[in-house]
Every structure is written in C-alpha cells, then in structure tokens.
C-alpha cells in the first residue's frame, strides 16, 4: 500500500459520540503509528509530559516519543481504556509510561503532575501542552459563561499552570511544545471560544520563547488543521463529520501519525536553533504566521 493510500479516509461516514469521545469506537479508527517508521534514539533518556496523551494527536505523540527512547507521562481526563491502550503501545516499544488522570485546568493537579513525574523518572526534559476541548455553537449568544470558562481553563490556562510548575526543573535544551490550531490563523465561525484560545496559545508560545531564550529553553507550537481524532466525532454534527477535511487542498483529513513527527523534531536536538515558531500541518491550507 502506498503511503497516500494508507492515510486515505474516504470511508468516513457521519458519526457522533458523547464527549470526550473514544478512539476505539471511531470508524475508521485513527492511525496513530506506522510500524515501518523506526526510531533512532533521538529522545533516548529523556522524559516528556504529554497532556491529552491518551488519544488522538496525543496518543500519536506518546507512541512516536516512545519509539525514540523517551519516558512518557500520559496525562488524561476521562478515557481510561484509551489511556491504557496508549500505555501498552508505549511499553511495547520498550519505553516506560506513567498514567496520570485528572483535570489540567486545575493548577493544583498540574503541580501534582510534575511531582509524580519527578518521583517516577527523576528528570523532566519535554513538556507537550496538548490537551484541549471544543464546543460547537452557531451564535455567540449561545455561548454560556460556563462554556467560555471551561474552554479557556482547559486550552490555555492549563498551559500556564503546567509550564509554571515544570520550569524550575527544566534544564538548558529542554523543549516546550504547544498544540495550537489552524483556527488561530483563519478563524472558525462555529468555534469562537476555541479559536480564541488557540490564538492565545500562539501569543503564549511567542512570548514565552522570548522569556526563556536566556535559559536556552525552546518553545514552539504545532498548528494542526483537520485531524481525525475523538475530538471531532464528540463535538461536531454528523454532516460535518462526514465531510471533515474534504475542503483542504489534499481533499482529506489528516491522521494523528502524520502530525506526531513534528513534535519529535521540536523535542530533539535537530531543532536547537528553532524557538518561537509554528509548524503548520493542515493538508496544504496557506495561512499567515
């Protein structure tokens, strides 16, 4: 099978799931690993915290890091089965995994994540701020105070909380990688609060990279476009899911495995002269920034 055929998702039909969605119940299931891609020890001996690491893009990152020899701390909120599956795959690649369950929108929990990581692995080298939630609303008037608070709490406040807790333990050449979104650059009429948080992540990434430059800690972001993850089937309607990603130049949604390698690059010594930047992985859509 050719690579472009492997990632074809023409068989996607309209489907929905309750929030937060389960990867194992998606049809087709997302592709989070390509066994033909062999690790090269690029992250050997390092430890990474990955929020939202149980499924979707986070699972693909966890597995890609494991293939490179990294200890992986998988932070998740609800999907126990997905988290356990990810841990199993990480361990099959001979890396160590630690599951930590809780709400990253709680600053005390973020402190606990760092404490547990250090207790288990005694080092911390990489932070991947990836956890996110979104809620579809056609009109601004329908977005409640509770929804705004919840979306910002998970998507951007959590990045402040976890990064703040981790910084005293990060060393020179450590990496912080944030998951942004194409919505920060082109907007989304039905995801006003979500898009706003992703815009904040871009500003956070650029500002923090400048703040930490003297400490030689790199800060970058990846801005995915339409990627086939549980977030999609648990927040969009059936019609939107059925046509998801078809409006990109490549005419299909991306798979999580197609995103993960960018995180490996930004976490590794291959990117030691890159900070404050954005890698766009969106099927060919041209955006500024």
UniProtKB/TrEMBL annotation:
Q: Name one Pfam family in it.
A: adh_short_C2
Q: Where is this region: Disordered?
A: 1-30
- What is one Gene Ontology biological process annotated in the Swiss-Prot or TrEMBL record? bile acid metabolic process
Q: Which InterPro entries match?
A: NAD(P)-bd_dom_sf, Sc_DH/Rdtase_CS, SDR_fam
Which PROSITE patterns does the record cross-reference, listed alphabetically?
ADH_SHORT (PS00061)
* Annotated Polar residues bias: 1-18
Q: Which UniProt keywords apply?
A: Oxidoreductase
Which is an annotated GO molecular function term of this record? glucose 1-dehydrogenase [NAD(P)+] activity
Q: What is its EC number?
A: 1.1.1.47
Homology family: Belongs to the short-chain dehydrogenases/reductases (SDR) family.
Designated name of the protein: Glucose 1-dehydrogenase
Per the UniProt record, the source organism is Candidatus Galacturonatibacter soehngenii
Q: In the record, what lineage is assigned to the organism producing the protein?
A: Bacteria, Bacillati, Bacillota, Clostridia, Lachnospirales
């Amino acid at each position: 099978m050719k690579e472009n055929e492997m990632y074809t998702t023409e068989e996607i039909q309209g489907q929905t799931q309750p929030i937060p969605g389960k990867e194992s119940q998606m049809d087709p299931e997302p592709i989070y690993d390509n066994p033909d891609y062999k690790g090269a020890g690029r992250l050997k001996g390092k430890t990474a915290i990955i929020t939202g690491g149980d499924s979707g893009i986070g699972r693909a990152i966890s597995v890609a890091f494991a293939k490179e020899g990294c200890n992986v701390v998988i932070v998740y909120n609800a999907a126990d089965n997905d988290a356990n599956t990810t841990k199993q795959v990480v361990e099959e690649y001979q890396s160590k995994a630690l599951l930590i369950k809780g709400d990253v929108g709680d600053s005390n929990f973020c402190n606990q994540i760092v404490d547990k990581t250090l207790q288990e692995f005694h080092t911390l080298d990489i932070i991947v701020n990836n956890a996110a939630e979104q809620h579809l609303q056609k009109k601004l008037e329908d977005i409640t105070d509770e929804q705004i608070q919840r979306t910002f709490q998970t998507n951007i406040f959590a990045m402040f909380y976890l990064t703040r807790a981790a910084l005293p333990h990060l060393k020179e050449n450590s990496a912080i990688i944030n998951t942004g979104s194409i919505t920060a650059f082109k907007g989304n009429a039905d995801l006003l609060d979500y898009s706003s948080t992703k815009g904040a992540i871009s500003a956070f990434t650029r500002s923090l990279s400048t703040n930490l430059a003297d400490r030689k800690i790199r800060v970058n972001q990846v801005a995915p476009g339409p990627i086939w993850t549980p977030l999609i089937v648990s927040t969009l309607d059936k019609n939107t899911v059925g046509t998801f990603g078809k409006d990109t130049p490549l005419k299909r949604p991306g798979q999580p495995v197609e995103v993960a390698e960018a995180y490996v690059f930004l976490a590794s010594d291959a990117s030691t002269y890159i900070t404050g930047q954005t890698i766009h992985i969106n099927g060919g859509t041209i955006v500024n920034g």
